[in-house]
Amino acid sequence: GRETRLRVVLRVRPLTCTETRRGDRRVVHSLSDGTVHVSAARHDATFGFSAVFDTGASQEAVFEGSGMRQLVELAIDGFSCTVFAFGQTGSGKTYTLMGPLAQSETPPAAPGLLGLMQRSFACLLEQSRSHGSDLALSASYLEIYNEQVSARLAAQPGPAGTPPCALPLRWSKTRGFYVENQLSVDFESLEAITDLLLQGSQRRRTSAHALNRHSSRSHALLTIHIRSRASITPPTWVPQPSACPSKQGTLCFVDLAGSERVKETGSSGELSVEANNINRSLLALGHCISLLAKPRGKRMHIPYRDSKLTRLLARSLGGSGVTLMVACISPSSRCLSETLSTLHYASRARRVTTRP
């Protein structure tokens, strides 16, 4: 019940080959003690975070240094935990969360390249084995595309090309915002949950444009549901319902679609509509974060209902959850405007508190 600040970490991706050939300058420099300095014409600013991972940081360093292992342990203890990555399109959000997720026809990714998700799955299953049979695990995978919520895991896959059914978003006093008829799939092994992640990712909508050859056109939420029971065997005279107190925790991974300027991406037609919906939902998220960053006594109404994304993240942002935010940026001078926007966004989020 104590107030807990959102933990915000920053990851700076390396310059791409295209940026290097083009002669882009590096304008973001990592300093000590979790700070970065932005140095460019008319811009000279320093930002501080819980941790900063520079261009040479490994996937393992991000997992250990971000506090992800502790988040897994809190989820097992019954807390609602969320990690989400945000930033400009092409800034490395999906790579940070999933690594170079292998397709079924290609060799699997090297262990060192696996992202926060796969490493968290391994940590969770390791903890599960130490608990014996006391943990029951299941997963659900949702996509928010053009303000429609749909499931990306199907009990019985339909014919190829069949669009997923939109799921209604409800609210109740006890559960808050929730998705009705959301399918959860049980799993017991690392291979099973990795297959579920691959299945959901392959069905996710992506497109190529000028800034990113594999741009996510939707927000994706993978939630691990963890149910545990007390392992102490009660006396035979204790009534059965009281004999099995249980805890239910969740670990939710949110891969946000990247913010983008339609002019720079060259998007048109359907891609332009998608980009406008993405930017609108990210703007609603930024507005909620700005209001939540104010002291509790000065807060106004928080407009979670402005988008499907903010409704689903309401508990994570200002409610009873434990949240880790991974801000991803490019160090390129060409991306300076979007990089500064992400840094200001992340700085405001550091002031947000929840009561887990």
UniProtKB/TrEMBL annotation:
SMART domains: KISc. One of its GO terms (biological process) is spindle elongation. ATP binds at G87, Q88, T89, G90, S91, G92, K93, T94. The keyword ATP-binding applies. GO terms for cellular component: microtubule; microtubule associated complex. GO terms for molecular function: ATP binding; microtubule binding; microtubule motor activity. The keyword Metal-binding does not apply. InterPro entries: Kinesin-like_fam, Kinesin_motor_CS, Kinesin_motor_dom, Kinesin_motor_dom_sf, P-loop_NTPase. It is found in: Cytoplasm, Cytoskeleton. CDD domains: KISc (cd00106). Residues 5-352 form the Kinesin motor domain. It holds the Pfam family Kinesin. Keywords: ATP-binding, Cytoplasm, Cytoskeleton, Microtubule, Motor protein, Nucleotide-binding. Its main location: cytoplasm. Signal peptide: none annotated. Belongs to the TRAFAC class myosin-kinesin ATPase superfamily. Kinesin family. PANTHER family: CHROMOSOME-ASSOCIATED KINESIN KIF4A-RELATED, KINESIN-LIKE PROTEIN. This is Kinesin-like protein. The gene is Kif12.
